Amino acid sequence: MEIFNKFECNVQPLLTIAIPTYNRAEYLDICLRRIGEEIDDLSEDQRKLVNVYVSNNGSSDNTSDVICKYQRGILPRFEVVNNIENIGPDRNIMQCYSSAKTPYVWVFGDDDVILSGGLQKILDILAKKNDIDILYVNGYSYSNSYLDEPLKGRGNSGNVEYVDPLDFVKRTHIMLTFITALIVRSGVCLNPFDELVDGSNLSQMSWVLALIRDGKKFVILEDRIYAAKIANSGGYGAVKVFGSNLCHIASVILVKQPRLVDAIKNGTVVMWFPTYIMNLRGGMDVGFSRENITVDLKKVYASNWRYYVFLAPLISLPNFVVPVYYIVVRLIRKLLRSVLI
User: Fold this and answer.
1) Among the four residues 185, 221, 247, 290, which has the most C-beta atoms within 10 Å?
2) What pairs with residue 18 in β-bridges?
């Protein structure tokens, strides 16, 4: 790998925004432009708190040209690693985390966008509460342009602190797998879990779950901070990754905290997979490779009674009944979420 154009200044940075990227120059351009605009809106001292790090995973498009455009003076610290060859998405994401030299790391999806004022809010929280282990931030999804859905950006305001990791996991569950939603403490040793997560499409869980296992302070920022491109993952199956892989990794890293493992599993079954199945049944492009969800989901969750209430009927009911049952599912989880997860 080759490192170039590393800028230095005197103030100790607080946060690294680390972007793993591969052949998505068009999205990276928007991502870096918005990061630059957010940094420009900060005070001079606050700008020095932020590092930007891009790990270019052997891209063959014009990703390097996009990066060079933003290296020319818009950011106080900008470090780029060009992998000579594609090392795979998991290792590229791990490289983003392990390379950070700041107390906090925000591994940020190259097709995601920081919303206006988002970086300022994050820095305000990290500066005031410097003992946070994980800061979870809310966002919204978009299809074409993140500007097409501005009303979604309003959200709630303020932040909620969770000292108990179980409360935090019950609130976040499968969203713990979404890198852009998590600003995390740096310095977790990844070596014990390298083989566990490599090839899982969930390398981030090696430090996220370790922080949940050992951490003491978790904060949820209710404001909408980012917009995430939907149906843009590709290359893997949702049930494989967010079913069997997630369950296995959580069970290993949180082996002494089975209630946390259950909260992740239950939240995924109750809150995420019903919508995924609905979208599949409706013919929507969900951005994942094709799977036999009837067989695969049952293999993973057959021992969990929630599967028979929230997933199995949505898979097997006739098409004209599915939307009605989905309404029932949403009502049940709205009324009984704290019990179900």
Assistant:
1) 221
2) 53, 107
- In this structure, the answer to whether residues 174 and 299 fall within a common structural domain is no
pLDDT in tens, 41-90: 999 999 999 999 999 999 999 999 999 988 876 566 899 999 999 999 99
CB 287 within 8 A of CB 232: yes
pLDDT in tens, 149-202: 655 545 567 888 988 999 999 999 999 999 999 999 999 988 888 899 999 999
| Structure tokens, 186 | 């740096």
Tokens of 166: 């179980």
Whole-structure pTM value: 0.92
Specify burial of residue 230 (Cβ count, 10 A radius: 0-12, 13-18, 19+). middle
Number of domains in the chain: 2
Write the CATH number for 47: 3.90.550.10
